[in-house]
């Protein structure tokens, strides 16, 4: 897992993070245009889609013992995307990292 590098004033512990939140119920900002709402919805939808694709790719990697088989299974699973699409390439990188089990050179060789 890649760790976020917080600035010095940013808390790491959940309790400290909660202390920085405002008291009371959270309120959705209602002063947004239809275009802004649509942009937020699209961002959430795309984030969910790539998360599902990465999850599927990692599952494929966990059930595969051979590097070439892994690549074929991932590309077959995501063949509905253009070869230069973000989701299928992110999925291949995630699958390669899971498959390599800490061997970064093997992960690069698999995903490239």
Q: Helicity range of the residues?
A: 55-70%
Described by the principal axes of the CA atoms, the overall outline is flat
- Going by helix content, strand content and strand pairing, the class is mainly alpha
What percentage of the residues does DSSP assign to strands (E)?
under 5%
Identify low-pLDDT runs: 1-5
The helix tally amounts to: 5
Counted beta strands: 0
Radius of gyration: 19 Å
Q: For the residues shown, what is the average pLDDT?
A: 88
Order of helices and strands: HHHHH
Task: Specify the biggest β-sheet.
Answer: none
| Cα-to-Cα separation, first versus last residue | 20 Å
What does the secondary structure layout of this molecule look like, with pairings?
Blueprint: H1 14-20, H2 34-62, H3 67-77, H4 86-100, H5 104-111
Helix pairs in contact: 2-4, 3-4, 4-5
Protein name: ADP-ribosylglycohydrolase family protein
Commentary on this structure:
It comes from Paenibacillus allorhizoplanae. This is ADP-ribosylglycohydrolase family protein. The structure is a single chain. By secondary structure, this protein is mainly alpha-helical. It has a domain at 54-112. The chain contains 5 helices and no strands. The chain has helices at residues 14-20, 34-62, 67-77, 86-100, 104-111. 15% of the residues are buried.
Summarize the structure.
This is ADP-ribosylglycohydrolase family protein. It comes from Paenibacillus allorhizoplanae. The chain has about 110 residues and is mainly α.
Based on the model shown, name its key terms:
single chain; 5 helices; disordered N terminus; ADP-ribosylglycohydrolase family protein; 62% helix; 112 residues; 0% strand; mainly alpha; flat
């Amino acid at each position: 897992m890649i760790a976020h590098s917080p600035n010095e004033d940013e808390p790491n512990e959940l309790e400290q993070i909660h202390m920085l939140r405002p008291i009371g119920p959270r309120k959705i900002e209602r002063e947004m245009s239809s275009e802004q709402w649509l942009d937020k919805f699209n961002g959430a939808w795309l984030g969910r889609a790539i998360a599902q694709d990465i999850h599927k790719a990692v599952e494929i990697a966990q059930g595969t013992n051979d590097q070439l088989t892994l690549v074929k299974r991932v590309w077959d699973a995501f063949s509905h995307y253009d070869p230069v699409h973000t989701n299928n390439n992110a999925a291949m990188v995630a699958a390669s990292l899971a498959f390599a089990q800490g061997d970064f050179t093997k992960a690069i060789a698999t995903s490239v």
